[in-house]
Amino acid sequence: MSALDVARKDFAAARRSRSLWTVATLLGLLTTLIAFGYSAYRVPPTVTVVRLFRTMGTVFGLLLPIVALVASYMSIAGERESGGVKFLLGLPNTRRDVFLGKLASRLAVVAAGVTFMFATATAMAVARHGVLPLSTVVGVFAVSLLYAAVFVGIAVALSAAVAERSQAIAASVGSYFLLVLLYVIPGVSVALLVRFVHQVMLGFERNVDLYNAVLYTSPLIAYRKALNLVLPGTAQRQVLQRASEGDTLPAYLGDEVSLVVFAVWLAVPLAIGYWQFEGADL
């Protein structure tokens, strides 16, 4: 066997999961309802559909991490808890084969779910408005796939680093709170915390670029910035605050940097997770 064999076996098992089919169906219905109910006042149909997919991006920013974490949090931890990992390693597999195979399988599962969600939304948008701004739809789809892949990588890495279901659940919930919710909940957000520490506790002058740089460490903020790379100029959103009206953001806070943030969140957790799995007592 090899990493590819592990991926095929795991994908076949995941494909039969009722919970994953249920989640995919519910999210497909949700995207269909959003596409059906969305309308804009006195704008051309093409603009309406572009705004629809911009709104879908906002929704996906919160939902896709949940999909990725639910689909991946037990990928390796489940095998360790059940003892199945010993069977996998009893075959001519290395720990690297198991790790990469599980990662590839869960990436494929989540990609299939995201594709289904976009397909339903696109079909409804075309049926209702009669237009398809292909570059926008494909761009948002590609960025969303990359965003989901980041959280698949995080979930697989966490799953490789723990040995029990309870630990995997706790790690996944904690990662969603720290990387997503903590950046959007009013009153307890990272932005307010950083400002409080910087200005009140340390007594420094207000530095908006510093606060933005801290916010930009979140995959969620990177996803919102990355959407600006594929949306028309009129549909782009101001994700980060500017120091004053008319100011431009420094280069390190540009939209293109979002791809670097994604790359870091893909590479670093996977490297740490593999290192923990390689040295774990199974």
Automatic annotation (TrEMBL):
The chain crosses the membrane at residues 20-41, 53-76, 103-126, 138-163, 175-197, 257-277. The lineage of its organism: Archaea, Methanobacteriati, Methanobacteriota, Stenosarchaea group, Halobacteria. It comes from Haloarcula onubensis. PANTHER family: ABC TRANSPORTER PERMEASE, ABC TRANSPORTER PERMEASE PROTEIN NOSY-RELATED. Keywords: Membrane, Transmembrane, Transmembrane helix. This is ABC transporter permease. Pfam families: ABC2_membrane_2.
